[in-house]
UniProtKB/TrEMBL annotation:
GO cellular component term of the entry, any: plasma membrane
Topological category with respect to the lipid bilayer: Multi-pass membrane protein
Stated name of the protein: Olfactory receptor
InterPro entries, alphabetized: GPCR_Rhodpsn, GPCR_Rhodpsn_7TM, Olfact_rcpt
Alphabetical list of Gene3D superfamilies matching this protein: Rhodopsin 7-helix transmembrane proteins
Keyword annotations from UniProtKB, A to Z: Cell membrane, G-protein coupled receptor, Membrane, Olfaction, Receptor, Sensory transduction, Transducer, Transmembrane, Transmembrane helix
Residues annotated as transmembrane: 25-48, 60-84, 90-112, 197-223, 235-258, 270-290
Keyword Acetylation carried by entry: no
Lineage of source species: Eukaryota, Metazoa, Chordata, Craniata, Vertebrata
Recorded name of the encoding gene: LOC101571035
Gene Ontology molecular function, alphabetical: G protein-coupled receptor activity; olfactory receptor activity
Annotated coiled-coil segments of the chain: none
Amino acid sequence: MENRTEVAAFLLLGLTDDPHLQLPLFLAFLLIYAITVLGNLGLVLLILLDPRLHSPMYFFLGNLALVDFCSSSVVTPTVMTGLLTGNKVISYNACAAQMFLFSLLICSENYLMAAMAFDRYAAVCRPLHYTTTMTTSVCVGLVSGCYACSFLNACIQTGDLFSLSFCMSNLVHHFFCDMPALMALSCSDKHITELVLVYLVSFHIFFAMFVISTSYVFIFVTILRMHSAVGHRKALSTCASHFTAVSIFYGTNIFMYLRPTASHSMDHDKISSVFYTIIIPMLNPVVYSLRNKEVKNAFLKVKHMFILSKPSKI
């Protein structure tokens, strides 16, 4: 008898069952999450407070920081709670909500990276037309499109997966409600659902990668035509940082989602998932902003204003 309501809750097996590792892992993830929150929300606050950062590049960066904060908050507190209390039960509805939100946010990050690459193309390759190309309406339209496509993707993926029957086991071999791990528990015919997953994720990833790759091909061609060594170094430094984040993000996602279910190793999947759910949201503020002089200057300005606002002691 197949009835998906037979499973009222799922049990997340988590990262480890070793009691000696649970406290160290909890402290490590607590530190990572604290850095993630401070880094991303601090970056959003800097962009809002400093008028010099009110440009298309930082508009996209602020949205990326907000998405990173939200995506980490969807997963990391659940992991830390399981490590600290040992309670790894998640209700059916909470599991569906977690998967929907994470799918929405990870897809948004995918498209925001593409939008940022297009913005860099416009700045490097069409500098004289940059202000007329990247207008406020264009930037808002690009970001709105990122979120709209991601919302539609999350609705399709979550609805497709949770239309399956879960009548075999409720033990999720993962630390959060990820689609491949949940799909392995279904007793329904998963062929169509697996095809939907592969085709949807393939489209989103490769479309964004096409935009990023095309943008940077034009950027590199423009750099090669530059006669300034300083311009070369500055542009290449920016591209190297971006490609580092892009490689980690797309590498883990392709490894996770674009393989047949039969070839999945859940232990390997969990290690990969740690990178794109917990580590990458912490690294992005470093990769994209802390090496940026404008962000550093904005931070020093806000710090100086905060110090001056303190009442002096007489």
